[in-house]
Description:
Layout: E1 10-16, H1 27-31, E2 37-42, H2 52-61, E3 67-69, H3 81-90, E4 103-108, H4 115-127, E5 149-152, E6 157-161, H5 173-181, H6 187-190, H7 192-205, H8 210-214, H9 224-235, E7 238-245, E8 248-255, H10 257-269, H11 280-285
Parallel strand pairs: 1-2, 1-4, 2-3, 4-6
Antiparallel strand pairs: 5-6, 7-8
Helix pairs in contact: 7-10, 9-10
Amino acid sequence: MQSSLKLVDCIIEVHDAxxxxxxxxxxxxxxLGLKPHLLVLNKMDLAxxxxxxxxxQHLEGEGLKNVIFTNCVKDENVKQIIPMVTELxxxxxxxxxxxxxxxxxxxxxxPNVGKSSLINSLRRQHLRKGxxxxxxxxxxxxxxxMSKIQVSERPLMFLLDTPGVLAPRxxxxxxxxxxxxxxxxxxxLVGEETMADYLLxxxxxxxRFGYVQHYGLGSACDNxxxxxxxxxxxxxxxxxxxxxxxxxxxxxxxxxxxxxxxxFLQTFRRGLLGSVMLDLDVLRGHPPAETVP
Length: 293
């Protein structure tokens, strides 16, 4: 990414709108220098944006003034990006690229936040063309800095797609779990039942009880084992297990907890449990820098 910087006029950082304040890689800003920077908070359709104004104030307190919320699957707000990139680039010194007529933008971000989806959305909007980059529901689809991909004719604009890069150290366990819920880390590395437990805790804490209705539970519950048992029974996800007793082996039918946890996570990620703001605690606990006395 650093070696490609001399080709680049502007950097678009894509992040998940459900975690707008946490989980971004702090090394991007240090490593990629003083290039104009636009933050795109994607998957806005899955995020509860009731506190959007506070989110913007918080980000502005961190020096991020150019922010756009998008849904790249449905092309929402994507048309704002190229005019903003053009304006940001016009206000900056282009160094080695002054004589170049075309714009070159680098797309960066942690894994699985929608960088490739953004590129494909821009191509649909401005070139009426289909996919240029592979899109996947799990991290690690884009593995190398790719060649330039055209996304606009007027102005002539190309994007460089890059692999998702997580910070070498994640600031806290809770931030790590939020990133995992959003699919930026492979599930098995964290543990699906651990993630399901944190998801249940978060939904209850924010009074998001869509899971009760979705799975036909009697009421909200803070016991993950009971919730997963109900999910497994409802979905028919059970398994035979041999239990050694004093009189010999007995086959017992048990809920398949990992399968139930997987369904719980996937249902959340598809937005079927309602929109969620995973950073509500950060938003309410830490006001923007400018408002701190």
